[in-house]
Amino acid sequence: MGIVKISDLMHENLRVAGNALSRSINAQAEHWMRIGMLSELHPGLDHQDLSRLLIQAELAGGLDLATAMAGPDAGSGIRRPALQPQPQPKAARA
Fold first, then answer.
1. Are 50 and 35 in contact (CB under 8 A)?
2. What are the pLDDT digits (tens) for 38-55?
3. Chain centre distance of CA 94
4. What is the DSSP string of 20-69?
5. Is the pLDDT of residue 72 over 70?
6. What is the pTM of this model?
């Protein structure tokens, strides 16, 4: 474990968010780092999908880089819904 230097503003942001979500400052920082890591590795996933990945990784023993890189296509059960065409509005009748 090491020491990470962050700005005073980021520390305050972590304190506020951590208090709101019942997490310590360190736990909030780690949560944001995990979400950020997964967001970079899987830019097509939304927050709900990333949260599912975190839960599945925790159930499997924890999140490491190899697990994070495997992502939703490695049997995690996350399936992105196919984009559905949106119905076009009918033209107003005169």
1. yes
2. 999 999 999 999 999 889
3. 49
4. HTT--HHHHHHHHHHHHHHHHH-TT--HHHHHHHHHHHHHTT---HHHHH
5. no
6. 0.68
